[in-house]
Amino acid sequence: MSELTLLVLQLGFLVLLWVFIFAIVYALRSDLFGQRVRKLQPETAAAAPAAASAFPAAAPAAPAAATSPVAFPAAATGGGTGELASSENATRLVITSGAKSGSEFPLGHDEITIGRSSDSAIIIRDDYTSTHHARIMQWNGRWMLQDLDSTNGTFLNGSRVTVPTPIPLGAAVKVGATTFELRR
Predict the structure, then answer these.
(1) Would you say 86 and 137 are in contact if contact means Cβ atoms under 8 Å apart?
(2) CA dist., res. 178 & res. 3, Å (int)
(3) How confident is the model at residue 11 (pLDDT cuts 50, 70, 90)?
(4) pLDDT in tens, 150-170
(5) CA 99/CA 115 separation, integer angstroms
(6) Which of 32, 76, 78, 131 is the most buried (most CB within 10 A)?
């Protein structure tokens, strides 16, 4: 082989080595510090029509029904009371299964982050929970569940959550090997 061919092969292997090193550093950084959490912006007047189409509205039977909370049928949600959890009716988060089974956390007005990270509000240390796995937040007075691009997903009554979703009272929310509910 000529010297030029050997030099090109050496440079190629050197570049490949650096690609592997950068890939390892990136993987370590994301494991240690997690991914950036995207903030959900509150609804504005311009976004109101788009948000209205994202959540089906129940047709009110009478004018009094327009002021009552929107409810999902129990069959559609697979459990829970059917009434959506809001700042008025949900006061606590109860872990029903998992390592911290029986623990209760009061609900305030702040968002609750769930994951393995020490900066999470609820720290769940199991092999199926991501560093920043999910969050529960208030949006227009309702408690919403958002998956934060977790590896194993977040489930509401057995259905995977891909977009911010309203949480019915008593509905089973599964993060990793832990299940919890929002209760009165």
Answers:
(1) no
(2) 61
(3) very high
(4) 988 999 999 999 999 999 999
(5) 13
(6) 131
Rounded CA gap, 33 and 52, in Å? Answer: 35
pTM of the predicted protein model: 0.57
> Which long-range contacts (C-beta less than 8 Å, at least 24 apart) are formed by 147-151?
148/35, 148/37, 148/38, 148/113, 148/115, 149/35, 150/115, 150/175
Q: How far is CA 87 from CA 33, 84, 173, in A?
A: 31, 10, 18
Place of tokens 């890939």: 23
pLDDT confidence of 34, banded at 50, 70, 90?
Answer: low
Token pair, residue 164, equals 């911010």
Residue with tokens 């997903």: 153
In 10 A of CB 74, how many CB atoms?
Answer: 15
Sequence-separated (6 or more) residues with CB below 8 Å from residue 47: 41
Distances in Å between the Cα of 115 and the Cα atoms of 92, 96, 102, 123, 145 are: 18, 17, 18, 5, 14
Q: Which two tokens stand for residue 32?
A: 């240690």
